[in-house]
Amino acid sequence: MAPSKPRVIYWFRTDLRLHDSPALKAALDLKPECLYPVWCWDPHYVYRARVGPNRWQYLLDCQSDLSASITKLNPKSKLFLIREAPQTLLAKLFKAWKITHIVFEKDTDAYARDRDENVVSQAKGAGVEVIIKMGRTLYDPDELVRANGGRPTMSITQVQKAGEKLGEVAKPIPAPKFLPDPGDTSLDFEHTQPSPNPDFNNIQRDEDDQSYNALAGPKGDFAVPTMAELGLKPASSQHRGGETIALKMLDEIISNTQYTATFSKPDTAPTAFAPQATTLLSPHHHFGSLSVRLLYWRVMDVLASYKGKQSTIPTNLIGQLLFRDMYFGAQAPLGYCFAQTVGNSHCRFIPWHLPSKIDPSNGLITGDHHIDTPEAETWFQRWKWGKTGFPWIDALMRQLRYEGWIHHLGRHAVACFLTRGGCYIDWERGAEVFEEWLIDHEVACNTGNWQWLSCTAFYSQFYRCYSPIAFPKKTDAKGEFVRHFCPELKDYPDKYIYEPWKAPIADQKKAGCLIKGDGDDTEGEGGMKIYPKPMFDFNARRTICIDAIKNAYHVNLYGDNPKVKDGTWRELFSDSAEGPTEGKSAKDASSANGNGEAKVKSGEEASGDMGVDQDEDEAAEVGGETRGGDRQGKRKRGKGKGQETLDGHFGGKRAKR
DNA sequence: AACATAGTTGCCTAG
DNA sequence: ACTAGGCAACTATGT
Hints:
By secondary structure, this protein is α/β, with parallel strands linked by helices. It has 22 helices and nine strands. The protein is globular.
């Protein structure tokens, strides 16, 4: 009996490209009789990941461009976009389309691993062969971790050393010249509707979500959804996705050999816009519309022939890619806990304001947070919406919201301000906002960078604190960036542009904008604009925060410490510490931070639970596995029962200091 | 073992 | 306009 020719599903996910795809090459090497390029509209992304309109649009751009490129290679083919969860859909497709193989690119994100394990086991049960190839990073994160002694990669030198053991980064593979026909695409099976619970993206929609109305879309043609179908208003960002654009951007960067060879991240201006100072390739790497290995080798080619003085690792473009791999290598062994403090063996515990609520059933953050003081919540909201009264911070947050991208050092500035250098608010709050608004949001990189900036992992020089006044002055003394994104300040004199509250009233009136209030009003009498007063004395907050971090470093708890989970960490923090540290003795510590700033504690939650629901504190070890595969839809299940320990999954790996 | 140095990206003042 | 050193002080790594 001659073996029948392979009938292959190529499952596209975060690899929306045809060039340099080891997985796609593996699919084509099977010489299949038919190849189905498939995208499953995953409810995890639709409901559970936070995604604002700009990243939705970027994703649709990538899908449309990829689909067009597929059709260009084979007019019978396209990206078949099917509106159902992969966990329920793929097994039905195996049967309906007589599939023999499924091929996809490896994804080491915590959720992706769960999803893919599920699909792999269903494929095996159905007799479908699975082929998985790495292509998302320079090195396979799991191999990188193995070469790092099984430990998460926490520094760039570790990545370099581990990388050397793994040998040369894979050379890019050319895009295919042809693609096989797809087979019959009938969908003669029941449509499994997802449960939109929780739905973190409800706030993004102003119309009904119709993304799951029909398996093959409203026209039955497997088309890429429209923003309207998703219930979303149009994107505000000018940044557009897609492999075609990505390759053009790459060509432009590489053709500027001086830029490519001398690029040095700390020397690029975060105040530069239109054009920005860095490459803006990160969203393409996120969606896979540009291969990082292609960028790597094209940069290496330039470096090999460029005669002038070059920048070096870690500040050059190669270094940037190594940092990306470092974060993937930090995330890979830590799983879900990498994205939070509680349970994370490599993240310092600091008693931030607005700590996450934890689901006792799996030890994972729920997406909701405790409000330990109303003041901190106010600061958080003003930070998020660009109304802090610090123009540099507000301009960055508005650029983030409108355009979905800000310069890396701008991210430093706003992240430092929210956490260790201003508000003393939990980095998880900031990471959630970035997750929602960034077009290049990558869970490993976003998490890692927030830990870096909050000095909870990767970086520890907390006394180096970004000033919202001095820092932007270095590259933009005239405040052009602020004038663009905070136009109400556009006529302010240069000397007041970063601290407009210092301008005399006469100057404020002359510039057509009064500095007053807390951001609720934007326009006053006679068309006079209003910009808020600064929400605190920055230098005073800076001192409070540095003292508090220093103290927390001395207490020296990590996220996997039992005291973090059971609440007894409070006993280790004196009443004079910033943050919700007073615990049971809150009443005695009303104004005790030594800087004359009376702390405002809400009666409701000041001495309440932090990070963990206290009812659940008696939790004992119940099995070793808390991967949280059931995060969607069932997070309120089993309160008080079946909870598992938050610590010990990665126990014994790091000697505590 | 004790110590020195480096670490992608701080700020301020004096000269 | 630019640089050097002080500021107060963290961890990881190497000798």
